[in-house]
Amino acid sequence: MFNRRPIIEFVSIDPAFSYVPKPDNARKFLPKWIKSLKEETFEGDLKEKGGRGLDTVRKCVPFLDAMKIGYSIPAPCDIWIKIIQNGAAFEHEVRSSINLAGNVSEVVSQHDPRQMGNSPYRGLILKFINPWKINTRKGYSCLFVNPINSGNKYFESFTGVVDTDNYNNIVNFPFRILNPDNKPEFEFMIKRGEPIVQVIPFKRSDVYSKSNVRNASLQEWKSEMRDKDYVAGNFSWYREHIVEKKITLEK
After folding, report:
1. How many CB atoms lie under 10 A from the CB of residue 203?
2. Which DSSP state fits 15?
3. Helix, strand, or coil here: 57?
């Protein structure tokens, strides 16, 4: 057997490699709220009615599998951000800087808001400086997204695609500030090790190819009706009989 290059690798360009939290499978970065959430809730009048409770998203495999897909890049250090002037400016402080091939760089920088034009994202746009060079196998690109279903309250990383098999530079991650409480000034902390972006490698020839749109065959229609009956009779049918255990794919 030939040793094939891994689909994705994260290469440190920081001499302090041993001290920086490392990228890993996204399933290892699940937020505390989803870990502590019970699969069933009796909130409100459900407790008074008795019987079976209501399933929560903790039991929803598609919801969880989306959170676990790909890889997460964690914050290299604690990042404190304060939003001032009604969201027009910011202050920040970090516990360390990043050494990019000998050049010390800040962990967070800023984009000129005019770059967003008249888009819905006009406003304060910041950027995470990434300490990792990302390489992928020939023909593979990376989809970078905000940590999926994470519930980040104060920031949202923008989505982007980079052909990381051909691009030899660092990919940084622009993000926008969220203001859920609509305050003129507020501050928040991104803790060291908290995921700031999710990385999903994919084969370009698979996702940019033509699709097929057609009517279902009689057999497909029967299969759909059968699965609908199975799901109606077993709340955990998909999890118990259909879904593939993703952890077994980590080779």
Report:
1. 15
2. T
3. helix
CB-based contacts of 183, cutoff 8 Å, min separation 6 = none
Concatenated DSSP letters for 119-131? STT-S-EEEEPP-
Contact by Cβ (8 Å): 184, 177: no
Say if residues 196 and 73 touch (Cβ distance below 8 Å). yes
C-alpha angle 164-200-239 in degrees, rounded to nearest 5: 160
Give which of 129, 146, 144, 125 is closest to 94, Cα–Cα. Answer: 129
Q: pTM of the predicted model, to two decimals?
A: 0.88
* Residue 177, helix vs strand vs coil: strand
CA nearest neighbour of 150 among 6, 26, 52, 39: 26
Tokens of 167: 């691009």
Three-class SS of residue 88? coil
Q: In terms of Cα–Cα distance, which of 157, 103, 164, 132 is closest to 20?
A: 132
Question: Which residues have a Cβ under 8 Å from the Cβ of 66 and sit 6 or more positions away?
Answer: 148, 149
88-146 confidence digits (pLDDT tens): 888 988 876 666 556 666 789 999 888 988 898 878 899 999 989 999 999 999 999 99
Distance of CA 75 to the CA centre of its chain: 13
State the maximum Cα–Cα separation within the chain, in Å, rounded to a whole number.
Answer: 65
Tokens for 178, please give them. Answer: 């969220």
174 within 8 A of 126, measured Cβ to Cβ: yes
Residue among 187, 130, 151 nearest 31 (CA): 151
Q: What tokens appear for 21 in the block?
A: 């939290």
CA–CA dist 202, 164 (Å, integer):
10
